[in-house]
Amino acid sequence: MSSADKWTPDHLMDPQTRAIHLEQRRAQLLPIVDDLRRLAREMEAELKEMESIEGDLPGQAAFRAWRVGKPLFKAADDIDQAIVDLVSFNARYQKAYEELPVRRDEKRQRKELAKAGQQPEAIESGPADTVPAKKQEFGDVFDGLRKGA
To answer: Is residue 38 pLDDT above 70, yes or no?
Structure first.
């Protein structure tokens, strides 16, 4: 795919082109992240070296430097998160659209094999006079009790 072509959803349907897309985006975004973090560190250092402005309370200049530089660090983190989100998209697409139909087909085949190999068995009931073992264990203590009474 040439650089003039734009990515379309059709391109992302194929595992190979999805991998290419991810690598291209990663190659584009990682240098931006590195540059933003470098710039943020340098800017924060410059701001911390600036002298206090008249009327500042103790520590207010350092806090102001941190507060002003924070959006640059956040921008770098957001772009880094975009890479993580692209990886997540690839994994979810693969799981939901490529692997799910295969898993469902395998499950359907297992069920069909189980049905074909299994004969319906009649449920045998014991004699009506037989008392369950639990009831015999406690004697007639529970004879007078009824469910819900």
So the answer is: yes
Token code pair at residue 92 = 């979810």
**97 in helix, strand or coil?**
helix
The pair of structure tokens assigned to 102 is: 């295969």
DSSP string, 65-80: HHHHHHHHHHHHHHHH
The interaxial angle of helices 60-93 and 15-49, nearest 10 deg, is 180
How far is the C-alpha of 77 from the C-alpha of 75, rounded, in Å?
5
CA 59/CA 52 separation, integer angstroms = 9
Report field, pTM of the whole predicted structure over 0.85: no
Name residues whose C-beta falls within 8 Å of residue 142's C-beta, 6 or more positions apart in sequence: 135
